[in-house]
Amino acid sequence: MPQIKSRKKDLRKAEARHDRNLVKKRTAKMALRAAREGGSPEAPEVAAAYKALDKAAKAGVLHQRTAARRKSRLMAKLNAAK
Fold first, then answer.
1. How many CA atoms lie within 13 A of 78 on its CB side?
2. The pTM is what?
3. Which residue ranges in the chain fall short of pLDDT 70?
4. Sign of CA pseudo-dihedral 24, 29, 35, 38
5. Could you tell me which residues come within 8 angstroms of residue 75 by beta carbon, excluding any fewer than 6 positions away?
6. Rounded to an integer, what distance in angstroms lies between the CA atom of residue 59 and that of residue 52?
7. Which of 41, 32, 37 is nearest to 78 (CA)?
8. What domains can be seen in the chain, in order of their start residue?
9. Per residue in 27-42, pLDDT tens?
10. Can you give the pLDDT at residue 65?
11. 25 vs 20: CA distance, rounded Å
12. Among 79, 65, 72, which residue's Cα sits nearest to residue 49?
């Protein structure tokens, strides 16, 4: 545990950021799962998954290329299932 006052505050800030980032990451993960079960590329779940991935990438929770790769793989799976 930090002893210095500013380091204690840094720790609190880091924990708060960690919690916010986990929420964004879980939201993206759940949206991807729902989109895979949605069945078709035109399903509203796919748009929600794209939005969640883009938001996570913008916030820095996921790298932009990771988000792009996941979106690409999602569409490939959905188009192959047609």
1. 22
2. 0.85
3. none
4. negative
5. 41, 46
6. 11
7. 41
8. 5-80 (1.20.58.110)
9. 999 999 999 998 788 8
10. 98
11. 9
12. 72
